[in-house]
Amino acid sequence: MIPSDFSFKTTPSICSLDEIKWIGKINSRKLILFSLLLFASICFIDSVSAQDGKNVVGSLTEKGSSPGIIASKMDNESIYRNLLNSTWAQYNEDLNYSSIILAEYVKKNITAREAMVATVSLYTLISKTEDEFHKAKVIDKYKNIHNNTIVALSNLEGYLWNITKFYETNNTIYAVKARESFNSSQYYFGKARGVEPRKVTTK
């Protein structure tokens, strides 16, 4: 059983209030599973496209193209900034979907197994995002932002893992751990975004 104070608050970056109300009016189970499948497909395509872009730049460099020409089109800071923005967007999207899944599970619109399967998909996506971001070449002035973003991603990964285990076992210990990871993730994400966060502690 979910503890009475077990809740997560986040500002949706995908679904508006009207869209969330619409979700409740139709078959939520099918919508969530279909949305996650579509979301995963889009993220996979974006990931492949981004990798192709890296390969193109690397190929041009290896063939002796003028560094000045390449730099004029896509300097290192622009490359990193694009990666940072896409990583932050991925973070918000995964957090939103996980919140929708939890809400639908609490309302008994989806089963524990369906919630678990859907959340595992998000866990896989955020793990890949963290791995790619970890490998990024960091500009000095972005080091603090980079490090805080990595911690935020790592804690989001922990949240998704523990909430998945909660769906699987119904053990409230995992729910408590998930809440701790969630709060920590939001704290460091706020620091990365330049927001003055309030450190949240769990008793």
Describe the fold and architecture.
The protein is mainly alpha-helical. It has one domain. 75% of the residues lie in helices and 0% in strands. The chain is built from 7 helices and no strands. Helix 6 runs antiparallel to helix 7. The longest helix has 35 residues. The radius of gyration is 19 Å and the shape is elongated. The N terminus is likely disordered.
Oligomer category: single chain
Helix content percent band: over 70%
Measured distance between first and last alpha carbons: 19 Å
Radius of gyration: 19 Å
List the helices and strands and how they pair.
Elements: H1 17-25, H2 28-62, H3 67-73, H4 76-106, H5 112-134, H6 143-169, H7 172-192
What's the quick description here?
The chain has helices at residues 17-25, 28-62, 67-73, 76-106, 112-134, 143-169, 172-192. By secondary structure, it is an all-alpha fold.
Core attributes:
single chain, 203 residues, mainly alpha, 7 helices, elongated
